[in-house]
Structures are given as structure tokens and as C-alpha cells.
Specification:
Length: 91
């Protein structure tokens, strides 16, 4: 993850965990934003963190490039204690 990226807590929103795929090293976590029903998958959440379907996690997004209202975004996943768990790109 990029250490230079900092998304303020006030710019994050809560999402519901709808699927968890556990392996020995990582977990694949699918979250859903409750109002839009949009889903994002994070594939490298550390396996030692206890996450179950129904848990609430938080996401924040940072637009890439000059076009702030469209295009690619870096999306970060956080727990309730403000720990970055994973990130992904959305195109």
C-alpha cells in the first residue's frame, strides 16, 4: 500500500461484509455499500484478522488523474480502529 495516501476518517463510509474467502495467508473480502448496493472486492486482507459476513468495515477512495468525477480510483479498506487492511484499483 502507498504510505503517501491518507484518506481522512470523515471521507470514509461504512460498508457491509457480504462474502469472505479465507486462505492460509490472505482473505478475500467483498463489501457492499448499503445505499448504492455497489460492491468492491479486496483480495489481500491479512488472514489473522477476524472478519465475518455481516461485519461493518470502512472504505475511502482517492481519484487518480485529473478527472475527479470519473475514471480510476484507489479504494482503501479500513477496520473500525482505523487500520488499513487492503487496497484495490477501480477503473
Amino acid at each position: 500500500m502507498d504510505a503517501d495516501i491518507e484518506i481522512l476518517e470523515t471521507d470514509r463510509f461504512d460498508c457491509l461484509v457480504v462474502n469472505v474467502i479465507k486462505t492460509m495467508t490472505y482473505q478475500g473480502i467483498t463489501i457492499e455499500e448499503p445505499f448504492s448496493k455497489g460492491r468492491v472486492y479486496f483480495g489481500k486482507v491479512p488472514a489473522d484478522i477476524d472478519i465475518e459476513v455481516g461485519d461493518v468495515l470502512f472504505i475511502g477512495a482517492k481519484p487518480l488523474g485529473e478527472e475527479k468525477d470519473q475514471g480510476s480510483m484507489e479504494v482503501y479498506l479500513y477496520d473500525e480502529e482505523d487500520n488499513k487492511l487492503d487496497w484495490t484499483l477501480i477503473y
